[in-house]
Design goal:
The protein has about 190 residues and is mainly alpha-helical. The chain is built from seven helices and two strands, in the order H-E-H-H-E-H-H-H-H. The chain has a two-stranded antiparallel sheet with strand order 1-2. This is DUF1836 domain-containing protein.
């Protein structure tokens, strides 16, 4: 069961630096790039990976530095990709707090975003490997627990326990991430 689920998740889908053209893109082109890259990761065909409204909200929320002439640079696209990954667990406010210093460093040319993004992707790949292994271990533990139930063992019970375990792990990681965001916010306020 777990191997099929992991295969269906298409965890390896990532927007790579080399996938992004070296020229600036209009919003529709950015959306097409994301749709092509992450289409197989969608839960269903009705789900949108990225929309104009999302990008406009990111811009209004100052999640990335201002665009010029309605065109998005490679740096904008890399930031949007990072936002895409972060938005699954963090609020827009937390994402802004997390990326605020990075945006300033990009604008002041203090950091090479492509290099940072390559490290981000390597860590993402490591996380995929870790998640795959942890999911298999969790699935085995769930089977053991489900088998210990008195005559109630069904596929549904295993699924229920596995969903509960995944959600709890997700919540624990989210809470840890939020704590780090709070530390970033406190550091930003103390530097002002």
């Amino acid at each position: 069961m777990i191997d099929d689920i992991l295969d269906e998740l298409q965890l390896e889908n990532q927007l790579k630096v080399e996938d992004i053209p070296d020229l600036e893109l209009y919003m529709d082109q950015v959306i097409q790039l994301f749709e092509r890259t992450f289409a197989s990761s969608k839960r269903n065909d009705d789900e949108k990976v990225l929309t104009k409204t999302m990008i406009n909200n990111y811009a209004k929320g100052k999640l990335f530095f201002p665009i010029k002439n309605k065109k998005y640079s490679k740096e904008h696209i890399l930031l949007i990709s990072m936002i895409y990954q972060l938005k699954g667990a963090l609020s827009i406010k937390d994402i802004k707090t997390t990326l605020e210093q990075l945006n300033g460093k990009i604008e002041n040319k203090e950091i090479e975003l492509e290099d940072l993004y390559q490290h981000f992707l390597r860590l993402s790949n490591n996380n995929i490997d870790r998640f795959t292994e942890d999911s298999k271990v969790c699935s085995t533990e769930v089977k053991i627990e489900a088998n210990q139930l008195n005559g109630v063992q069904t596929e549904y019970i295993e699924q229920l326990l596995l969903v509960s375990s995944f959600v709890q792990m997700s919540n624990l990681y989210r809470r840890a991430a939020e704590r780090l965001v709070d530390e970033i916010a406190n550091t930003n306020h103390s530097e002002e």
